[in-house]
């Protein structure tokens, strides 16, 4: 097993699908349709490949926790529903891997909280993502009773943080200093 090779693969693939020139939602409707008809959404194709390769790592997955949490988060925040549905479960698998190794998933939890703050501040994330994140991880947890309550607590924590981060991002353009201050206090 060549850790560096796999690490390079995942980082390169995530860099590819997150590049600005592939963010189809930023294009005009006409350009979006033309690209879709000619090439399809390459982000989805590569995202599915990342997902498939992740699950083929077997026992070596633990080597990528917490290092791959940020890149996977960046990929799941792409506003493409099928890509999100296919890749958000990787987070549960990461939690499960760390839990099976250490009895907790603190490294994963700390990393996702840190990276989520950075990504939302950069303009990524939305209400729909928050709902998908909650429903997918909750559903995955139900199949593993031993970790279910920990995952539900984690999901609740991340959902609350994401709500506050999205509120904060929304009020930063608000003229009212009181609204911005209130939102900052809530976030802290």
Automatic annotation (TrEMBL):
One Gene Ontology term, aspect cellular component: plasma membrane
GO BP of this protein: cell migration; myoblast fusion; small GTPase-mediated signal transduction
Domain Dedicator of cytokinesis TPR repeats region residue range list: 1-136
InterPro entries: DOCK, TPR_DOCK
One MF annotation (Gene Ontology) recorded for this entry: guanyl-nucleotide exchange factor activity
Top-rank taxon, per record: Eukaryota
Protein name, per record: DOCK2 protein
Annotated source species: Acrocephalus arundinaceus (Great reed-warbler)
Gene: Dock2_1
């Amino acid at each position: 097993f060549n850790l560096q090779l796999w690490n390079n693969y995942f980082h390169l693939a995530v860099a590819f699908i997150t590049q600005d020139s592939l963010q189809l939602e930023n294009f005009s409707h006409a350009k979006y349709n033309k690209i879709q008809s000619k090439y399809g959404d390459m982000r989805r194709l590569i995202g599915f490949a990342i997902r498939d390769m992740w699950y083929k790592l077997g026992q070596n997955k633990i080597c990528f926790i917490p290092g791959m949490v940020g890149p996977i988060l960046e990929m799941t925040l792409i506003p493409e529903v099928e890509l999100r549905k296919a890749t958000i479960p990787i987070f549960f698998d990461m939690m499960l891997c760390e839990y099976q190794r250490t009895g907790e998933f603190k490294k994963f939890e700390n990393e996702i909280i840190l990276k989520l703050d950075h990504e939302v501040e950069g303009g990524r994330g939305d209400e729909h993502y928050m709902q998908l994140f909650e429903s997918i991880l909750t559903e995955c947890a139900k199949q593993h009773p031993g970790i279910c309550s920990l995952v539900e607590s984690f999901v609740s924590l991340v959902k609350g943080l994401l709500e506050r981060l999205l509120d904060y991002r929304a009020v930063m353009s608000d003229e009212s200093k009181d609204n911005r201050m209130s939102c900052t206090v809530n976030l802290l």
